[in-house]
DNA sequence: GATTTTATTTGTCCAGGACAAAAGAGGTGA
DNA sequence: TCACCTCTTTTGTCCTGGACAAATAAAATC
């Protein structure tokens, strides 16, 4: 069996590290250290790709590449999350642990059923706040610690999305404000957006879900076409922080002044405040923002 | 109001054209023709970005960049789809046209309700084959012709996904084969995958939906963990054709020989056959493939 | 201890050359 | 007319190595 190797494009695809970054790391730190094929092009062995994925994971937690690339192999799971982790780890809820166990056992049907039961018992709002949100935290943490595989996280996300969507569909049509929910290109994480949609819909807002990955100019056009009062975006931790401010400024400038711009998600934690953009630090704040809007627009 | 300009990274984000391509086009064809900012970096005006998006759209239809970049502004909607378009344009169904009209009117609730009705009347299989598939064609065509905005396509996709998912959720658990459905990184289009899931589930297969954008190695691990009989992937026309063969070969090599690999979607049309990979030209062929598998594995 | 200043780290951009895979054009034979 | 082979052009991707500004850490000052 041929040891499979990766082209630089394949590494970019599977790690999320750009070709430029891969080349400059090699030049500066000596890692990765790919061999060359007959054509002089980089050819990455699988184990280096694996290590790069681990490095990317630790970087999303706040570690710096210089340290990670210098340290040998001992940089494994020994590294604790370095992000200023204010939030205390969620209380070790036995039922949540059970749900995690179902995912780990790859029991899709069992997980979905358990989630439905929990939803029926808690109601949608508490389900989102007390079940989905902490579960997402737990799964994210387990993945960062290497206890969850990528596909296990995907399965969790996909099944949870289904439960949420199904529940949202049963809600009556909202009366306002009109909220447009989406994310920018290269930001595919939609679970946070769905949780927000559930909460906003419960509060009687009229949500227009446009899925993920809308180019900025199209977000503007959609807002005009739908006469949206508020545009709500989400950025995950995996999104390059560096690009966020420029993006939001561009969007804010293009959006008519009457429309509000709300942004949430883990990727916003390290972004400085931007004029005319409301940064939502969590779901509680999202609900508060809606109440504020209602207070400021009494007649609608 | 400042005319907003784009950095090269923003253009890549919003057009899907890589930085390398943008630079080499500029060198070879003289377009795009960005000005430079104080720092010597490219700064693209909005109208050039708009034209680039149009060019990308026409390229996905089979046009070649050399012609498109030489032609002046007359390259507008006058260019017909150049793809060997075997499929006759779907019969102008009045009801489908009505559904298109609802999207065009941005009537999300009305569209969703109309789709639900249609689903109830037709049943899931005919709904997928006779409603969703032709609608997706129509929307794609309208978008290519410039009659639909990006956000209108997104709205259609998002709402249709919801209807399909909801319907899939009501189906009883399948008995086999176990089918793992997903797509590779940078391929976010999920509607085709969902339609396939609906059809396969109707035929009694056990579908494991993992959402989109799974790195190759994780697809392999997921297949092992779930003991999947078949891995089914989808590539849209927007996915870079050039990368597909290498990707599939890598996946095929890493996947144990007993597992089948099925691939569908518009992006496969121009890909030559690959050993050990079953290319599905349409949904009818997908159903046939499942029947074949059943015939070859009688005892399960 | 809090805030400003300096130093280091780090990602992105640039130019322009090279090359192989894909697509078209042209030619040959059934 | 159609299928198949060969040659030419087109086109996307990769390469090197330099440069710089934004982000971060470290040092210095109040």
Please tell me about this protein's structure:
The structure is a homodimer of 300-residue chains. Chain A folds into three domains: 5-70, Multidrug-efflux Transporter Regulator, Chain: A, Domain 2 (Orthogonal Bundle); 94-169, Methionine synthase domain (Methyltransferase, Methionine Synthase (B12-binding Domains), Chain A, domain 1, Orthogonal Bundle), CATH 1.10.1240; 178-296, Rossmann fold. Helices cover 52% and strands 10% of the residues of chain A. Chain A is built from twelve helices and eight strands. In chain A, helix 11 (244-254) links the parallel strand 6 and strand 7 (260-264). In chain A, helix 6 packs across helix 7, helix 7 (124-144) packs antiparallel against helix 8 (150-169) and helix 10 packs parallel to helix 11 (244-254). The model of chain A is unreliable at 84-88 (pLDDT under 50). Chains A and B meet through helix 1, helix 3, helix 6, helix 8 and helix 10 of A and helix 1, helix 3, helix 6, helix 8 and helix 10 of B. Chain B binds a DNA duplex (30 and 30 nucleotides) through residues 7-9, 18-21, 23-25, 27-28, 39-42, 64-66, 240-242, 270.
């Amino acid at each position: 069996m041929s040891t499979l190797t990766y082209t630089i494009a394949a590494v970019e695809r599977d790690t999320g590290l750009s070709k430029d970054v891969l080349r400059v790391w090699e030049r500066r730190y000596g890692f990765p250290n790919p061999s060359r094929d007959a054509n002089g092009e980089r050819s990455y062995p699988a184990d280096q790709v694996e290590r790069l994925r681990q490095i990317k994971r630790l970087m999303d937690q706040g570690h710096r590449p210089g340290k990670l690339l210098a340290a040998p192999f001992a940089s494994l799971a020994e590294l604790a999350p370095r992000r200023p982790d204010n939030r205390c780890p969620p209380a070790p809820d036995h039922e949540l642990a059970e749900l995690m166990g179902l995912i780990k056992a790859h029991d899709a049907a069992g997980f979905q059923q358990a989630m439905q039961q929990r939803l029926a018992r808690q109601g949608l709002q508490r389900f989102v706040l007390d079940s989905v949100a902490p579960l997402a935290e737990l799964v994210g943490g387990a993945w960062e610690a290497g206890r969850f595989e990528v596909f296990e996280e995907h399965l969790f996300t996909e099944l949870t999305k289904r439960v949420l969507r199904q529940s949202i569909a049963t809600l009556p049509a909202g009366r306002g404000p009109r909220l447009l929910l989406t994310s920018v290109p290269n930001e595919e994480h939609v679970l946070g957006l769905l949780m927000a949609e559930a909460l906003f819909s419960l509060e009687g807002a009229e949500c227009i879900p446009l899925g993920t990955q809308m180019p900025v100019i199209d977000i503007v056009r959609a807002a005009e076409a739908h006469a949206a009062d508020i545009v709500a975006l989400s950025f995950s931790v995996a999104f390059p922080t560096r690009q966020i401010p420029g993006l939001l400024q561009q969007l804010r400038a293009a959006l008519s002044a009457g429309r509000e711009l709300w942004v949430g998600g883990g990727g916003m934690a390290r972004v400085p405040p931007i004029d005319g953009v409301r940064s939502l630090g969590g779901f509680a704040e999202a609900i508060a923002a809606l109440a504020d809007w209602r207070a400021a627009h009494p007649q609608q």
